[in-house]
Design goal:
The chain is mainly α and 134 residues long. The protein has helices at residues 5-8, 24-36, 42-51, 55-59, 61-64, 84-98, 110-119, 122-125; strands at residues 10-12, 18-20, 65-66, 71-72. The protein has one domain. The N and C termini lie far apart (39 Å).
Length: 134
């Protein structure tokens, strides 16, 4: 049997759905932020779950999201603490929270907007290239 923490750390949410957490810190973070949130809708649940996966995003949560106003802090994508992995996690969390690409309007030039759109593609977020059948 594999010794995978994510498979062992389980919880039942209030609506009886099964949740899997990476570790105890991930689970604690999720429930703490959900209790502090202005809303406990599926968008906030997704945001807190994804941001809670990595220690870096948990530690810099206030630089990523303003829990009092409900606003994303888009500038965090360019801050020095970000790693290639944490940027992907933050982009995924933003995408789930906004149901789109929240930082697209930060770019004036069309080529920059297209590049930004690509950053939110799940294909781009994977570490290995996707091969087509051509």
């Amino acid at each position: 049997m594999m010794n995978n923490t994510a498979l062992r750390a389980e919880a039942q949410s209030a609506n009886n759905t099964h949740m899997v957490f990476a570790d105890k810190e991930h689970e604690r973070f999720y429930y703490e932020k959900l209790a502090q949130a202005r809303s406990q809708d599926c968008f906030h649940q997704a945001l807190f779950y994804v941001l809670g996966i990595l220690r870096d995003t948990r530690e810099h949560f206030d630089q990523i999201y303003n829990i009092k106003t409900g606003n994303l802090r888009l500038k965090c994508l360019n801050e020095g603490w970000q790693t290639s992995g944490s940027v992907k996690v933050v982009r995924l969390a933003f995408n789930l929270y906004t149901n789109g690409m929240p930082s697209l309007d930060n770019y004036k030039r069309k080529d920059e907007q297209i590049d930004e759109c690509r950053e939110y593609s799940t294909i781009h977020m994977t570490s290995s290239p996707v091969r087509t059948g051509k």
